[in-house]
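Methods — Computational structure assignment.
A single polypeptide chain was analysed. Its primary sequence is given first, followed by the predicted tertiary structure written as structure tokens.
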Amino acid sequence: MSRRVKRPLAKSCAPGDRPKGARPFRGSPAERPPGHQMSSLHTKRSRSFELMLQSIALLATLISVHPALAETVEVAPGVQVTKRTYSAPSNEQPFFGFAAKNSAQQAADESFVTAVVQAVGTREKAFDETSKRGWRAISSGNVAEAAQRFNQAFLLAPEQSGVYHGFAAVAQIRFSDTDFADELFRIARKQPNPLKTLNADYGRVLLIAKRPREAQPVLEQAVKDTPDFGDAWTNLAWARLQNGDRAAACAAVDEAARQHPSSNANADLTVLRSSAQCK
């Protein structure tokens, strides 16, 4: 009588190590090993998570490349801006940080507008005085106060160019947000009653953003707007030099020196003369 010989259980093999003729496990769900379904489910979940992360990354890229995809807010009739907020009190951010205001805050805004208009006589004068205080604060280095003043100006006349010009300065100086500053400068150029220094300030920001080709035409206009503003001529010299026109850069350097530039710009003139090899 022949004896049955117990065969040892086969060890699991990697696909390349399978014995000839061996086939991968294709049994019904009921026949599969207990851990098989859980492993498959885990793989599916991991894949779904990866796809979700890829989607989020793609959306972030699209928003950075196409700002129009970011959330925008209408801040004045026909004026849309990208909603940008920062780590600072709301009244020290452009447009009050886009914070929703309760009824008490809205009433306080109305009281402010009424009081300041009564004090100076007209809404236009109130806007001018408030804006001037904002620029004085910028000049003294108090950007937090400047933002507060420009927010007050925004309450008085949200359509005015000076509002967006002032907020652009705040975005650049305090929050180092060149993209938002660029957006606000572009709006400021379209709005009524721009300051003569608008193009000079915008051109400077474009230089900071390392965009000299865009900066040069803006600064060419700036020196027409303010021919006696030495700093505008200095920045135009930088733009011309960076765009490869040394002779024109030297001409701007000479004009800047005649217009009594600021101490910072004066220091730049020495570097410019050397870099452009001015005679």
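Note: The beta strands are 72-76, 79-82.
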